[in-house]
Records
---
Amino acid sequence: MSSPTKSIDEMPPPTAELTASRFSFQDLLAQAAQAWGLSHPMMLAILLAPFVVAGSGVVAALMGKEAYRWLTEEDQFAETMQVLCYAAACVMCVLVVRYQFKAKQWLIGTLYVVLGCGLVFLVGEEMSWGQRVFGWTTPESMVAINKQEETNLHNIHGVGHSFKWIQLLVGAYGTILPLVFLRKDLLARFRKLVDAVVPHWSLVLFFMPMFIWKLFRNLGPAIPERFYYVITNYNEIVELILAMGFCLFLLFQLRKCRREFATESTAQ
């Protein structure tokens, strides 16, 4: 019997697929762990992470305003962790591009170049392109149009609304497509491309909160004034879960590329 703490180099290549006849939690956990090449405890930690983060926001709100501000305000814990997640995802994206181009997967590699540029943009926007680090003064032209009077695009009056819909689409992408493509016969001819650009089903819960949250915020009723601060700031918690999802998506792809490269090297 193999040890549950084996490293990736000791793990067998993933072969199990999610099937309609296997819906017990233990089966799902085993299939996800095999796809990732991780031990069951580590896979369980990944599956539970969105619930832990979402719950931490609720707990902080119940603890009082100071605790909630520390967690959700600008440049506080949640936003700092978002930047770190996106920065880590950027680094892994570069490595994935390297593997894909080495394998002559030009289309997939190019798509990851585009993703990498998007991640750099997200890091820049979250940090107001260095303004919060270096403390430069916001140009007057930007002060006049930016609701936070900072050097970024997503807080410009009118533009921010578009970002909310983009976030909804990203959430929908990571929620719906992984479930659609559980059918391995669907677009089987392009399966390598699908597996490279669609998150693994185990990451659905990292994208679903953003999808549901933006449906509520974009299409739902107005928020009562007494709940406005708590609800609007909870957006930072939802964004953190999404950032973790991107980071884990890149980690999954990087681990898969390394396994494939190792297999090809052994075969040669």
---
Amino acid sequence: MHLSKIKYLLTTSVLMTMVAACTKDVSIPVQPYDSKLSIQCLITPGNTPRAYIYRSVPFFDANVLPADLFAGNATVTMSSTDGSETLLRDSSWNAFRCYYEYFFSGQTPVQANKTYTLSILYDGETYSATAVTDRRTVQLDSVTYVPKFKDLYGEHEGIVLHFKDPAGKGDYYRFDMGRTFTPIDTLFGPNKEVSPCALDKTNWLQEIGRTIYPDKDIDGETFTITVEPTYKHKLGQIGYVRLQTMDKAAYDFYDQFDRQKLSQTNPFVEPVFILPGQFGSNVFGVFGAYAVSDSLRFEYPE
């Protein structure tokens, strides 16, 4: 054997021995954990309410699916000046992620310009918050497309929403698009796996923007929002884009949520923690109201 190969093998062997010698199993003691509720309920006139109520678990907990975390034994009521109703346990099949999503569902459509109170009785404690359905609907002027734009997360393609912000500060906007999809054509998960369920079926997909945009610096002016699509698409695929106008409670919660995600992926961003809000110190979440525009037809140009 050539001398250089012998030196290479000896060096490799020494390095592997050193790495093996440095390996050590470390036991991390399990710390006490106080589980909290996570509540998300956004209501809009004309739709029946849905309240997503889950319990939090430690980071290394094996329970991660909605079925494991759903607080199904909670008692949930929603009331207004017209009366109250108990929201019932319900679920829907998520054909993209291949599991059932659980929530509490009402039967009475929400009405405009009313104050609603959401109350949750769970584990002997009652949590409540209010929301007012007085958001004004802002219509889209047009929807366009850009092959590349840059934001804090890098460079992406983008769907661009164009509209006129009405005068008067305090409007908060979010992207909303519905379209059909076939899971076999759609990237799924962080490793870009193909969704394993309903591969030969066409399903309806509702894509909601992660970020909510305030009108703080553009009050009464032309507003554009550029959003990176979440899911894979094909040339000529059709979507129906709407604009949600949110209230401040929804903005405050999802703004923290968005900044927390950014801090997890960018080491130069200060860590952000989601703070308890409307429901008290032991609950995370939001009870908010929004209005939604008519949809505009959008066709992917590539």
